[in-house]
From TrEMBL:
Record-linked Gene3D superfamilies: 3.40.50.880
CDD domains, alphabetized: GATase1_Hsp31_like
Any Pfam family matching the protein: DJ-1_PfpI
Domain of life: Bacteria
Family indicated by similarity: Belongs to the peptidase C56 family. HSP31-like subfamily.
Annotated keywords: Glutamine amidotransferase, Lyase, Signal, Stress response
Residues in the signal sequence: 1-21
Residue ranges with Basic and acidic residues bias: 84-97
Lineage, uppermost ranks: Bacteria, Pseudomonadati, Bacteroidota, Flavobacteriia, Flavobacteriales
Location of region: Disordered: 77-97
Species of origin: Flavobacterium flabelliforme
Name of the protein: Type 1 glutamine amidotransferase domain-containing protein
Family matches, as PROSITE patterns: PROKAR_LIPOPROTEIN
């Protein structure tokens, strides 16, 4: 009987230790909010737009594979529109091919949270994938603007890539544009001209960032480039999306 009692005590002790360890691990896990566009019209062209698949897939897997928990939100909730050009086989990458087969992530995309229902207090950082869509909705969305401000003022990283720095257009902190005096990048005027949309988009991102006092820089068209200035991380184009995620991950890991 003594042996049985001892075994029971040991088993209970191990179970308690495992439960404590699991709770600690869960508490230590970083959580990031991804914000995608709900806008699907490419100006007056009659064509569709949305988010750019590579700019979602590459950062998602870069973070998720390292144990980061990710939620996805959009202004309208539900399935966000995908830029059809980003689904062209010529735009495919290993990450987008993986996404195509990932039923769990595809289900999360189909059922994104409504932006007004999320709270920055539940997350360690926010990441905005691009695509042309954000230039129309996220640049003007008051909920998104307030959310970015809340993350930033609570000393949490805010990350953007390609066109999504457009979501910073109307974000202010203490009465000044968040990007004022900050080193940033984003989809360049030359790249917008190369895709033939300078007369279609509501504003040119490079010009808008500079107009708000940002110190904008860029490299050659379609080359990977990411800039980090304190909590603000920006990437120039689709090829830069993984770089942005790497910088974001480094910041998250530094805050253990």
């Amino acid at each position: 009987m003594k042996k049985i009692a001892l075994f029971t005590i040991v088993a209970l002790t191990v179970s308690c230790l495992n439960a404590t360890a699991q709770k600690k691990n869960k508490k230590d896990m970083k959580k990031v909010l991804f914000v995608l566009t709900s806008h699907d019209k490419l100006g007056d062209t009659g064509e569709k737009t949305g988010y750019w698949t590579e700019e979602f897939a590459a950062p998602y897997y870069e973070l998720a594979d390292k144990g980061v928990v990710i939620d996805i939100a959009t202004p309208l909730g539900g399935q966000p529109p995908i830029d059809p050009k980003s689904e062209d086989p010529t735009a495919a990458t290993e990450d987008t091919k993986r996404l195509d087969q990932d039923t769990a992530v595809l289900a999360k995309l189909k059922n994104t949270y409504k932006l007004s229902d999320v709270n920055q207090a539940d997350y360690d950082a926010v990441f905005y994938p691009g695509g042309h869509g954000p230039l129309w909705d996220l640049a003007e969305d008051k909920t998104s603007i307030a959310l970015i401000e809340s993350f930033y003022t609570n000393k949490k990283p805010v990350a953007f890539v390609c066109h999504s720095p457009g979501a910073l257009k109307n974000v202010k902190v203490n009465g000044e544009y968040l990007v004022k005096g900050k080193k940033v990048t984003g989809f360049s005027n030359a790249e917008e001209e190369a895709v033939g949309l300078t007369k279609v988009v509501p504003f040119l991102l490079e010009d808008a960032l500079q107009a708000n006092g940002a110190s904008y820089s860029k490299v050659g068209d379609w080359q990977p480039y990411a800039v980090e200035d304190g909590l603000l991380i920006t990437g120039q184009n689709p090829a830069s999306s993984k770089l942005v995620a790497e910088k974001l991950l480094a910041q998250l890991n530094s805050k253990k």
